Amino acid sequence: MLVKTNSQKEEPGKKAGFPIPVRSYKMILLGFAIVLLGFVLMMGSGNTDPGQFNYDIFSFRRITLAPIVVLCGFGFIFWAIMRKPKDGKE
């Protein structure tokens, strides 16, 4: 015979299921895609000649734009995890 303890009992107002709605999981995946895009923006061509310095590493795209895109992606992921659905059915 299986007996439920106090920690296993379901409260009448709560429903069982995932703690994060399915739509939020999709938004989290979109956030990871944004972060990945930021890291792709940071990439660039290397220099095959060690005696020559490549000044392209100081471009606007690598130094400014890419880190902003990565931080926006992490912020979007945080928002997707923390948000509450409006109707509770998501």
Automatic annotation (TrEMBL):
Q: Name one Pfam family in it.
A: DUF3098
Indicate whether Transmembrane appears among the record's keywords.
yes
Q: Which residues span the membrane? A: 24-43, 63-82
Keyword vocabulary terms for this entry: Membrane, Transmembrane, Transmembrane helix
Task: Identify the InterPro entries for this entry.
Answer: DUF3098
Query: By what name is this protein known?
Result: DUF3098 domain-containing protein
